[in-house]
Specification:
Layout lengths: L12 E6 L6 E5 L2 E12 L5 E9 L10 E2 L4 H19 L6
Antiparallel strand pairs: 1-3, 2-3, 3-4, 4-5
Length: about 100
């Protein structure tokens, strides 16, 4: 008889999602304007999704790692949901540790 798998506690599930150019937006923090190009999407313990946006300064150079709120827009909500669904398919099809 095979041993039972150990109890596993997963603390966080997070994915990074590129924001397609037509969906990107600008926001300002500390007098620096950013173009938001990436989402970090987390699966919360209760099954809901949470997302923060990240990007780069419009004027160029390197900005700090600053998060921004994701606007309440249907196109962005669809992107987050599609990314979560795709991540679930990829995780389900994993091929073990290499």
């Amino acid at each position: 008889m095979a041993d039972s798998p150990p109890d596993v506690s997963v603390g966080a599930l997070a994915i990074n999602v590129d924001i397609p150019e037509p969906l990107q937006w600008n926001d300002t923090r500390r007098d620096v304007e950013y173009v938001l190009t990436t989402l970090n999407v987390r699966l919360l313990p209760d099954g809901r999704l949470a997302a923060k946006a990240y990007g780069r300064p419009v004027a160029g150079g390197r900005g700090g790692y600053t998060s921004f709120r994701v606007p309440d827009r249907p196109d962005l909500a669809e992107l987050v949901a599609a990314a979560a669904d795709q991540a679930a398919r990829l995780w389900a099809a994993h091929r073990d540790l290499t």
